[in-house]
Design goal:
Order of helices and strands of chain A: EEHEHEEEHEHEEEE
Number of strands of chain A: 11
Oligomer: homodimer
Radius of gyration of chain A: 16 Å
Chain lengths: 193, 193
């Protein structure tokens, strides 16, 4: 299954303005992930984070070049993911190996990147990361499930999650909703066309 | 208490493109309210609709001129609301009386309109309607509670609910979340500044 998870502000941004390697989530964007780092963690949030990012369920990761560029420095010596990662890009480039994580660059289009990731995932989920690639895979009908964590903040600009789409660009079916004390986790099945 | 309720698409629109009196919710916008008219109604949706729009809890309504113009023809001979309605506008105009509903035009600014509505509500809630006026009252710190019904459709454009705000334009605290089979109702307390 190809799925995406995004923490999104109430005004629809998956990262704030001015995304740089020093400020990977943009201005104010770190607040989108505060629910993951609360101490003590909310039990609902902990369960969602575990099921979304657990190594046992995720078999491969798909992301854009921009996500790699701003993220790599934060992912540590082992590359964090520990599963094959595929980076959609236009320029061919040698793989980046970070101990147990390999980032492979895919230049022959999104559809092939999804196929490669799906094959590498070997029956587990492919997790799609980054607002741009999520939007592209979604509108190309390549995503099975979209998970949104709705965070009640206003970022006022940045990386839009679902902005600038065509009317009816994707069709969703609400599958599960769980709210913690501070945020709400929504899970949608996406109609592949 | 001043509160607003909006049914909003997953891409953040409270109405579709091309809003006209014949198409009051814009193109595709009627789908935002399908949850209110399902047959049989989902018990959660029914409870939310009842508590949001019940005459016993709403004492006055506040809206913009545009909402009045596109809505009036749809609100029937009795004007639907049955409580004092206040219309924020720049041009003075005689009140419109529809049997049990009076629409009074307020030309001395949003803050005064809210005050007038609150007085008329006589201890009950003031319900704020229409994307523009909701956004204006929200950013002016005049709203106590924002209720969002999140509808998993893509409108691709139209009346943005929270677009084009400044970062941190409003602060929210998640109060209650209830999901039906098709939509999710989120209730936020707004920090008045």
């Amino acid at each position: 299954m190809i799925r995406a998870h995004m923490s999104v502000s109430l005004d629809g941004f998956a990262a704030g303005r001015e995304i740089t390697p020093d400020q990977a989530m943009g201005r104010g964007g770190d607040d989108l992930h505060a629910w993951m780092f609360a101490s003590p963690p909310d039990p609902i949030d902990r369960a969602i984070a575990a099921s979304t990012f657990a190594a046992g369920t995720v078999g491969a990761v798909l992301m854009g070049r921009r996500t790699l560029e701003v993220g790599l420095a934060h992912w540590g010596d082992d590359g964090t993911f520990g599963v094959p990662c595929f980076v959609v890009t236009h320029k061919p480039r040698e793989p980046i190996i970070k101990e147990r994580t390999t980032f492979t660059f895919v230049t022959d289009g999104l559809r092939h990147a999804v196929e490669q990731a799906n094959e590498a995932a070997d029956g587990k989920h492919v997790q799609v990361m980054g607002a741009d690639v999520v939007r592209q895979t979604l509108t190309a009908g390549l995503i099975d499930e979209l998970q949104i964590t709705l965070v009640p903040i206003i970022l006022g600009g940045g990386a839009t999650m679902l902005g600038d789409l065509e009317p009816g660009a994707a069709r969703f079916e609400q599958v599960e909703v769980r709210s913690s004390a501070t945020v709400t986790h929504l899970r949608y099945r996406v109609d592949r066309r």
